[in-house]
């Protein structure tokens, strides 16, 4: 099943989050038990070349491939899809105009303005029928607009009603900064949780998908109860740190 089909079936998808721009590292990450791997071009080190090369091992591992592009780089959203990504997350979509530009870049006409050229994507996803690819791409491609500011929350219903926007992805770190007027960075800030839940509720009520970055795995179930389906966590830094801590603790325990 494609990522879109699984989300439409109301499955919960857990994606690892890659910021190290190395295809071999991504290959190892894709070999773990995550449903998907997200390559981060905004705050992570990924660039066009690393995305092009790193999507191959993700797809080869039969994992869903997602890319977060830099702020305003809707041209890269199109390229990520041409490289083989199934979904794109666009940060700081704060207005209807932002949403319209994003949608135009990721959807083919008549829904959007995406240019034709799946040179890498089609063969990587096993397609040799251009007409079928074109016919099915708009439904198969998932566009997540990030909500992480007061402006985005205020424009949420209009963003959700923008043709070609398939979902909302909450960035809790920036959300907490906006919520506290720059005083706090806390992805689990209790004071903002009611609004986070409302974002998920309104997103799902509009028939769209809801995603969020999970900074604390222990509250993942709470996010699912709110309506979030795509849960992102597990960066290379986080996984190496946790794995090393566990390994060293066992080793030192054995040594007495």
Explained architecture:
Helix 3 runs parallel beside helix 4 and helix 4 runs parallel beside helix 5 (96-106). Helices cover 47% and strands 16% of the residues. Strands 1-2-3-4-5-6-7-8 form an eight-stranded parallel barrel, surrounded by eight helices. It has 13 helices and eight strands. It has 256 residues and is α/β, with parallel strands linked by helices.
Structural class: alpha/beta
- The separation of the N and C termini measures 49 Å
Low-confidence stretches: none
- Helix fraction, binned, reads 40-55%
Multimeric state of these chains?
single chain
Strand content: 15-25%
Largest sheet: 8 strands, parallel, barrel
The number of helical runs is 13
Order of helices and strands: HEHEHEHEHHHEHHEHHEHEH
Mean pLDDT equals 97
Neighbour order of strands in the largest sheet: 1-2-3-4-5-6-7-8
Features:
256 residues, alpha/beta, eight-stranded parallel beta barrel, 13 helices, 47% helix
Please give a quick description of this structure.
The protein has about 260 residues and is of the alpha/beta class.
Secondary-structure map:
Layout: H1 3-8, E1 13-18, H2 23-30, E2 36-40, H3 48-60, E3 64-68, H4 74-83, E4 87-90, H5 96-106, H6 121-124, H7 130-140, E5 142-147, H8 150-154, H9 156-160, E6 167-170, H10 172-179, H11 193-205, E7 209-213, H12 220-226, E8 230-235, H13 236-255
Helix pairs in contact: 2-3, 3-4, 4-5
């Amino acid at each position: 099943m494609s990522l879109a089909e699984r989300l439409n079936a109301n499955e919960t998808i857990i994606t690892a989050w890659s910021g190290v721009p190395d295809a071999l590292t991504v290959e190892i990450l894709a070999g773990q038990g995550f449903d998907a791997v997200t390559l981060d071009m905004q705050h992570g080190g990924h660039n066009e070349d690393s995305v092009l090369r790193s999507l191959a091992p993700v797809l080869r591992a039969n994992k869903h491939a997602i890319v977060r592009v830099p702020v305003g780089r809707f041209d890269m959203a199109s390229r990520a899809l041409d490289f083989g990504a199934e979904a794109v997350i666009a940060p700081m979509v704060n207005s209807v105009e932002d949403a319209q530009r994003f949608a135009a870049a990721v959807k083919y006409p008549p829904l959007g303005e995406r240019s034709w050229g799946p040179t890498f994507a089609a063969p990587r996803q096993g397609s040799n029928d251009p007409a079928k690819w074109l016919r099915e791409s708009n439904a198969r491609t998932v566009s997540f607009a990030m909500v992480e500011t007061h402006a985005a929350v205020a424009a949420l219903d209009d963003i959700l009603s923008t043709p070609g926007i398939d979902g909302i992805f909450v960035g809790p770190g920036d959300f907490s900064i906006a919520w506290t007027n720059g005083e706090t960075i806390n992805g689990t800030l209790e004071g903002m949780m009611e609004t986070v839940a409302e974002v998920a509720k309104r997103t799902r009520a509009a028939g769209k998908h809801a995603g969020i970055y999970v900074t604390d795995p222990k509250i993942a179930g709470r996010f699912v109860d709110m309506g979030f389906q795509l849960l992102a966590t597990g960066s290379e830094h986080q996984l190496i740190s946790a794995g090393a801590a566990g390994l060293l603790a066992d080793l030192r325990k054995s040594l007495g």
